[in-house]
Specification:
single chain; mainly alpha
């Protein structure tokens, strides 16, 4: 795969991931849909979208999903939805991708991957900018929501690592979505007394499943085999920044000089890490 294609696919995937955060927060904060119903609609629409993509594909479609990966996917999607009942889009993105980064970089180091000094400096710069952007001036996030989002990040990190080299990414991801659907339906049945639906919330859930999840995950798993675990984790640090920009546009959050400066630190740290990885 060419470097240009890797960059393009990775960028599209990051936009999709940020879109998931914004759609979920919009649905659960500004509509009447409940978290379990959002999760179920998201997974069903994602499974249908991926099935259609596989049917239209002319590729070899080698590989298949697994129940372990489906459990990780469901754990991520459910924890993600319930966490966004109480967390802001920016705080949720910070906690989610902080946990993803810790999971994937930890796996990379455990597997014997070593970071060069400038790679480590880039990672520290990106993390410092991220923390400085999102934490100062904000009240502490709710404990339960924070735990749920951290759990979602670990589950997503595990799911991403299991997806490396698993075969055709669209087929594998589609099968995992399909396996996760009955888990989500079971959760909705279990919590049916708290179920509430409205058309706008359902629309957000459909968009989250079909576009930001189904298509977004297929794109990500196409790019992931060409990325090291630590590089994949670091590049995802851009997602909270994208989510914050979306929050400014969609949720009316103000644009400040502090936001611009800390964004430069985050993106500069990511760029330094990626450049050093290429040089290595």
């Amino acid at each position: 795969m060419s470097k240009i294609r890797i960059v393009a696919l990775t960028s599209l995937a990051m936009l999709a991931f940020a879109g998931n955060a914004l759609l979920c927060r919009l649905a659960l904060a500004h509509t009447d849909i409940d978290a379990a119903s959002f999760t179920t609609i998201r997974l069903i629409s994602g499974a249908i979208t991926l099935w259609l993509i596989v049917r239209a594909s002319r590729g070899a479609n080698v590989g298949k999903g697994s129940w372990l990966s489906a459990i990780a996917l469901f754990a991520y999607a459910a924890s993600f939805s319930f966490a966004y009942q109480s967390l802001s889009a920016a705080t949720g993105a910070l906690l989610l991708f902080g946990a993803v980064q810790a999971t994937m970089i930890g796996y990379g180091i455990w597997s014997g991957e070593r970071l060069r000094k400038l790679q480590l400096a880039g990672l520290v710069l990106a993390l410092a900018g991220l923390v400085a952007l999102l934490l100062p001036g904000l009240s502490a996030p709710p404990l339960l929501g924070s735990i749920l989002m951290l759990s979602a990040g670990v589950a997503w990190g595990v799911y991403s690592l299991r997806g490396r080299g698993a075969g055709d990414p669209t087929r594998v991801t589609g099968e995992n979505f399909l396996r996760a659907v009955p888990m989500a339906v079971g959760l909705s049945v279990l919590l049916h007394r708290d179920a509430t639906l409205d058309s706008l919330g359902a629309t957000y859930a459909l968009l989250s499943g079909a576009l930001a999840s189904g298509i977004g995950y297929a794109i990500w798993y196409t790019a992931l085999p060409s990325l090291r675990a630590s590089s994949a984790a670091t590049v995802q640090l851009s997602v909270p920044v994208i989510a914050a920009v979306g929050g400014i546009v969609l949720l009316g959050e103000p644009l400040t000089l502090r936001f611009a400066l800390k964004s430069m630190a985050i993106l500069g740290g990511i760029a330094l890490f990626v450049w050093q990885k290429r040089a290595k």
